[in-house]
Design goal:
Largest sheet of chain B: 6 strands, parallel
Oligomer: heterodimer
Largest sheet of chain A: none
CATH class of the largest domain in chain B: Alpha Beta
Largest interface: A-B, 79 and 63 residues
Number of strands of chain A: 0
Helix content of chain B: 40-55%
Low-confidence stretches of chain A: 1-5, 345-377
Strand content of chain A: under 5%
Radius of gyration of chain B: 24 Å
Structural class of chain A: mainly alpha
CATH topology of the largest domain in chain B: Rossmann fold
Strand content of chain B: 15-25%
Number of domains of chain B: 2
CATH superfamily of the largest domain in chain B: Response regulator
Order of helices and strands of chain B: HHEHEHEHEEHEHEHEHEHEHEEEE
Structural class of chain B: alpha/beta
Low-confidence stretches of chain B: 1-46
Shape of chain B: elongated
CATH architecture of the largest domain in chain B: 3-Layer(aba) Sandwich
Mean pLDDT of chain A: 84
Distance between the termini of chain A: 6 Å
Radius of gyration of chain A: 23 Å
Strand order of the largest sheet of chain B: 2-1-3-4-5-13
Number of helices of chain B: 11
Number of helices of chain A: 17
C-alpha cells in the first residue's frame, strides 16, 4: 500500500507468499512447530510416567484414559475448525447434556426404538449447532456472545426436560458397547474407532480440501477470504452444525457410558475442550493450528491427569499444572519472538529482505506473513 | 548468513520445548515420595488395608470431618487412608476417574459417597473384579458390598419435621431448600417428610421445594427468592449443610430474622454464629466423624475377611462398639443428634 513496500515486483511478492513456508528443509519444517513441541512433550510425559509412576504401565491405564477423554477427543475435532476461523463454541457441553436428556426421554417416555432415539438425539445436537451457526453467520452476532447464551439455554432445556429426574435403564447391549474393547484384553476401547474415523474425516476436510483452505483464510483475514471466493457465512454455518452434531454424538456416548441421563451431566467440559485445542497449538485469534497438534494436546492433558492421579497428587495441583502449561504454551512463542527480534541475526535478515525470500518465523507462523502479504497488495 | 538464520530460529523452538518440558517434569516428579506408599499394599498385607476415600467433592467441611474420622480409624488398625475426589463438580460421573485410578493402584477398599446411584456402577464393578471391596457412606449406590448409613432415612426425616413443627408452633407454611435436584438421600428424606407431614401434621403446609445445588451462592439466592414468593412462610427446612448455612446467612441479615424459623441438617462449626445470634434455635445432624470412622472399620472388616457383607455379620468398630449388618448390606450409625445453644460449643467439625 505505501510507497516503501511497492518496491517489490509482483513476482517477488507472489514468491514470498506462496513458497515462503517451503524455503526450509522438510525435516526442519516438521520439527520447528508448536505442534511438534506438543507431540514431543506428550511422548516425554508418557514415557516418564511409565518409568516412574507406580501402576502407570498397567494394562488398565490406556483403557481408562481413552474412556475418560473420549468426549473431549470427539469435541476437540470440530472445535479446532471453529477456532481456526476465529470463532468459538462454548455451548458444546450443554448440547451434550441436552442430547443425553432427549435420548433418555425419547427412549423411556416416548417408547421410541433405541436406534431411533439415538438418531433423534444426534439430530437435536445438529439443530443446536445450526441455531448457533445461523446466529453467527447470517445474523452476524459474535460467536462468544451467541454461545454463552446457548450454553445457558441448552443446559436450561436439559434441566427443564428432566427436572429432578435421572433417567437410567438404557439397553445393556448399548451401554456395554461404550466400554467394549477393540479386542479381548486390548487396552483400546471400541470408542476409538468412531474417533479415528472422525479424526481422519476432519483431518482431510481441514488439511486437504479447498473448504479447509477457506477455514484458514477466514481466520487469517476474512475480507481477503471473501475476495478469493470463500463463502464465509456458509463455511461457519457448516462448522457450527458439525460441532453440534459431534456434541450430539458425544452426548449419546457419555449418557450410555455413565448409564444415566441427568441435566447436570458434562458440566464445564467445553472449557476442557478449548484448553486442549489451544494447548495443541491452535491460535485463539484464528488462522493457525493443525488437527494432529490438537489430538496431541488432548492426549497430553489426559496423560498428565491420569499420571498425577495415580501418583496421589490432588486435583487442584493438576489443574494448576495444566493451567500453567496452557499459559506457557500461549506465552512462550510471543516471548521468544520478542527475544529473537532483539537478536542481531534478525536485524540483518530484515535489512536484506528483498534479496532473500522471507521465511516465516518459527513462532509467529504464517499468519503474520500472509497478513502482511495481503496488506501489501 | 544462512547458517545464522537457522541458528537464531532454532533457539526459540528449543527453548519453548525445554520450558514446557521442565514444567511437566517438575510437576510429575515433585511428589514421587508420596506415590510410593499408595501403590503396593493392596490386599492389606502387613497391618491394615489401603483405603481410598472418595467423598462427593473435596473442600466440604462435612466430608473433611468424615475423612478425619476414617483416618482416626486407620490409625487404630494400622491401615492407610487416601482421600481423592472431584473439586466442585458434582456431576453424575465426576467420581469415575478416581475410582478407575484406585482400580489401577489395586487398593484394598474404596469408601465412596456417591454423586449418582447408578452412574458409578460400571467403574465400581470393575474395581470389585480386581477384588477391591466397596463401601458406600452418606449416599448409596446400587453396587457395593456395604452401605454405612448415617441414620435411617425415616429417623432423619421425622427428626427434622419434629424440629420445624416445634419451632413454628405446629401450623403454617413451610418450604424445603435442598441440595442438587438429583441428590439420592435428600430426595428420599423429602418424600418421607412429605408423608410424615400428611399423616401427622395436618396444619403444616409444604408450599415449595427449591434446589441450591450445595452451592453457597445459589442456596443464598434461592432462600431470598423463596421468601419473596411466599410472604406467609413460617419455616424453612434445609436437609443439607451448605443449604442451611446459606439460608441462615440470608435470614440473619434480613427482616425475616427471628420470624421465619430455620432448621435442617447443619455442621456445628458453620451454624455456631447463627445459633449465637438467634437466627436458628435447633438443628440436627449425625456426627460425620463417627460416620467416616465406622465406614473405615467396615472396609477393614471386609478386606481382612472378618465379614462378607451378609445380613447378620457383626464387627467391632473401635470405640463405637459392635455393629450388625442389616438387610441389603446396610449398617446404621445411629440416631440423628440435635444441636442447640447448650451443646454447640462441644463440637468443632
Amino acid at each position: 500500500m505505501s510507497a516503501t513496500t511497492t518496491k517489490k515486483t509482483i513476482d517477488e511478492a507472489v514468491d514470498e507468499r506462496t513458497y515462503a513456508s517451503y524455503a526450509r528443509p522438510l525435516l526442519w519444517r516438521l520439527v520447528a512447530t508448536r505442534e511438534f513441541a506438543v507431540v514431543a512433550l506428550l511422548l516425554l510425559v508418557f514415557f516418564y510416567s511409565r518409568a516412574n509412576i507406580v501402576g502407570f504401565d498397567g494394562p488398565l491405564t490406556l483403557y481408562f484414559l481413552f474412556l475418560q477423554s473420549a468426549p473431549i477427543m470427539l469435541l476437540a475435532l470440530p472445535m479446532t475448525l471453529v477456532i481456526i476461523t476465529g470463532e468459538i463454541d462454548l455451548s458444546v457441553a450443554s448440547t451434550m447434556a441436552l442430547t443425553g436428556a432427549i435420548l433418555g426421554i425419547a427412549y423411556t417416555k416416548w417408547d421410541l426404538p433405541f436406534v431411533l432415539s439415538m438418531v433423534l438425539a444426534i439430530g437435536v445436537g445438529l439443530a443446536c449447532g445450526l441455531f448457533n451457526g445461523f446466529l453467527v453467520s447470517y445474523v452476524k452476532l459474535p460467536s462468544i456472545a451467541v454461545t454463552i447464551g446457548t450454553l445457558a439455554l441448552y443446559r436450561g432445556l436439559a434441566q427443564g426436560f428432566l427436572g429432578t429426574e435421572a433417567i437410567n435403564g438404557f439397553p445393556e447391549k448399548w451401554t456395554d458397547l461404550t466400554k467394549e474393547r477393540i479386542s479381548d484384553g486390548s487396552s483400546y476401547p471400541l470408542v476409538l474407532i468412531p474417533f479415528v474415523v472422525l479424526a481422519i474425516a476432519f483431518g482431510l476436510l481441514l488439511h486437504f480440501s479447498s473448504f479447509g483452505r477457506g477455514v484458514y483464510e477466514i481466520g487469517l483475514n476474512d475480507e481477503a477470504a471473501r475476495f478469493t471466493g470463500v463463502d464465509i457465512a456458509r463455511t461457519k454455518l457448516i462448522l457450527f452444525a458439525l460441532a453440534g452434531a459431534v456434541a450430539g454424538l458425544a452426548g449419546v456416548y457419555q449418557t450410555l457410558y455413565s448409564g444415566v441421563a441427568r441435566g447436570d451431566a458434562s458440566q464445564n467440559l467445553e472449557l476442557q475442550v478449548i484448553a486442549a485445542v489451544l494447548l495443541g497449538g491452535v491460535s485463539i485469534f484464528g488462522g493457525r493450528g493443525t488437527l494432529p497438534g490438537v489430538v496431541a494436546g488432548v492426549l497430553l492433558i489426559a496423560v498428565i491427569n491420569s499420571a498425577m492421579r495415580l501418583d496421589g497428587i490432588r486435583t487442584e495441583v493438576t489443574d494448576i499444572i495444566i493451567g500453567c502449561l496452557l499459559v506457557a504454551s500461549v506465552l512462550a512463542p510471543m516471548l521468544l519472538t520478542w527475544v529473537s527480534g532483539l537478536a542481531p541475526g534478525r536485524v540483518r535478515r530484515t535489512a536484506s529482505r528483498s534479496s532473500t525470500p522471507t521465511e516465516p518465523s518459527v513462532t509467529g507462523g504464517p499468519s503474520l506473513d500472509s497478513k502482511s502479504a495481503n496488506e501489501r497488495q | 548468513m544462512k547458517h545464522m538464520l537457522i541458528k537464531t530460529r532454532r533457539l526459540p523452538a528449543l527453548a519453548a520445548l525445554a520450558l514446557t518440558a521442565t514444567l511437566a517434569l517438575s510437576a510429575c516428579g515433585s511428589d514421587d515420595g508420596d506415590g510410593g506408599d499408595n501403590g503396593g499394599s493392596g490386599g492389606g498385607g502387613g497391618g491394615g488395608s489401603a483405603i481410598t476415600m472418595i467423598p462427593k467433592s473435596l473442600g466440604n467441611p462435612y466430608f473433611d470431618a468424615s475423612t478425619a474420622g476414617a483416618e482416626r480409624a486407620a490409625g487404630e488398625f494400622d491401615g492407610s487412608i487416601e482421600e481423592v475426589g472431584p473439586t466442585g463438580d458434582a456431576g453424575p460421573d465426576s467420581q469415575v476417574p478416581f475410582i478407575q485410578t484406585a482400580t489401577q493402584q489395586g487398593v484394598g477398599a474404596l469408601v465412596v459417597s456417591a454423586n449418582d446411584p447408578s452412574a458409578l456402577c460400571d467403574s465400581l464393578e470393575q474395581a470389585q473384579d480386581v477384588d477391591i471391596k466397596v463401601v458406600t457412606f452418606d449416599s448409596d449406590t446400587e453396587c457395593r458390598d456395604l452401605f454405612v448409613n448415617q441414620a435411617d432415612a425415616q429417623g432423619i426425616a421425622s427428626k427434622q419435621i419434629e424440629l420445624i413443627a416445634d419451632q413454628i408452633g405446629g401450623s403454617g407454611d413451610i418450604a424445603i431448600l435442598s441440595a442438587a435436584a438429583n441428590a439420592t438421600n435428600q430426595n428420599e428424606w423429602i418424600s418421607l417428610m412429605e408423608e410424615d407431614l400428611a399423616a401427622n401434621y395436618p396444619d403444616i403446609n409444604l408450599v415449595d421445594t427449591v434446589y441450591g445445588d450445595d452451592d453457597d451462592q445459589k442456596s443464598f439466592d434461592q432462600t431470598a427468592a423463596l421468601l419473596q414468593a411466599n410472604p406467609n412462610l413460617k419455616g424453612i427446612v434445609s436437609p443439607t449443610t451448605v443449604g442451611i448455612a446459606a439460608a441462615a446467612r440470608y435470614l440473619s441479615t434480613s427482616e425475616f430474622k427471628g420470624k421465619v424459623a430455620l432448621t435442617g441438617l447443619g455442621a456445628p462449626s458453620q451454624m455456631k454464629t447463627f445459633i449465637d445470634d438467634g437466627t436458628v434455635t435447633e438443628f440436627a445432624l449425625w456426627n460425620p466423624d463417627d460416620l467416616g470412622y465406622l465406614a473405615a472399620y467396615a472396609a477393614e472388616a471386609l478386606v481382612s475377611g472378618d465379614i462378607s457383607g451378609e445380613e447378620g455379620d457383626t464387627f467391632t468398630a473401635g470405640d463405637l462398639g459392635e455393629y450388625t449388618v442389616g438387610a441389603d448390606g446396610i449398617v446404621v450409625l445411629g440416631e440423628p443428634f440435635v444441636f442447640d445453644a447448650s451443646n454447640i460449643n462441644d463440637f468443632d467439625f
